[in-house]
Amino acid sequence: ILARFVDYNEIYEKVKKVVGLSPIKKMSLELAKKIAGSAEYMAEKIGIPVVITIVDDGGNLVLQERMDGALLLSINISRGKAYTAVALKMNTEDLKDMTGPNGELLGINTVDNKVVTFGGGIALKIGDDVIGGLGVSGGTVEQDMKIAKAGFEKFKEVMYNGD
After folding, report:
1. Residue 123 pLDDT class (50, 70, 90 cuts)
2. What are the structural domains of the chain?
3. For 29, what's the count of Cα atoms within 13 Å in the CB-facing half-sphere?
4. Residues 137, 54: contact at Cβ < 8 Å?
5. How far apart are CA 131 and CA 35, in angstroms?
6. Which residue has better confidence, 154 or 112?
7. Comparing C-alpha atoms, which of 87, 86, 76 is closest to residue 112?
8. Positive or negative, the Cα torsion across 69, 27, 144, 84?
9. Given this model, what pLDDT does residue 127 score?
10. What does the alpha-carbon distance between residue 122 and residue 27 come to, in Å, rounded to a whole number?
11. Residue 13: which pLDDT band, with cuts at 50, 70 and 90?
């Protein structure tokens, strides 16, 4: 039985690396810390103090980090970006046109005041399943997106390489 178990685990690990399977199906504090660490590294690299927020698949706070010098308003904005990414199962940068003057989601932020409709929020997905959201605020929209994407790259690395 033990030999079969060992064989199974070896085969599973090989398939996981080839196919990209991940045994992690939910957001954990450990995973959130890794994601936030990569985002913070990028923020320091480009010299922008930000607030980084990670929520679970229900939009509940898992981790929030405010770098020294980050704007106080960024606390709520980053949380809103993370929440929005989970609530709408999409990155907030993709909402720009949808929430504009002729957009089909114009006014969505009046229905739910936690919704943020500009870049810096990323839906953390495994396949089509959203397991959490990442929100970054403190720089320009482009800077926030760059920092959030660094955190997302770490998420992908952990999910598909088991870091």
Report:
1. very high
2. 24-161 (3.30.450.150)
3. 3
4. no
5. 13
6. 154
7. 87
8. negative
9. 87
10. 14
11. low
